[in-house]
Amino acid sequence: MTKTRIVKRSCGHDEIETNFVSAEIAAKKLCKDCWAKAQAEKNASTAASHNLPELTGSEKQVSWANDIRETLRLYIEAAEAGKTTGGPPVEKCLPIMANTEAKFFIDNRDAILKLEKKIIED
Ligand SMILES: [Zn+2]
Known about the structure:
Bound molecules: zinc ion
Strand content: 5-15%
Number of strands: 2
Order of helices and strands: EEHHHHHH
Number of helices: 6
Helix content: 40-55%
Strand order of the largest sheet: 1-2
Largest sheet: 2 strands, antiparallel
């Protein structure tokens, strides 16, 4: 049987927790709703600061697609700086960034997420 307990998150909300971590760690985390909200805000601000179009789809799809698109954005940034090994040329990636459908990024996630390995870390 799974043990559960109620913990108070850093946002002040109570949440039922099933994986036991220390009370200290549990209290530092946001509850699921606040985490999703924070994640969406982070994605929106990343998109805004890089002039990316807003994605369309369900809240869940958009959040997931934003993470995938961020990988592509980082790849392009690295490729422009000559910090990639292999991988497609920037000219091929830029039109992909213009897609606004969350579903597109999710459907192509395998190809896009692979690009992360092509980035040369400093
Ligand atoms: Zn909360």
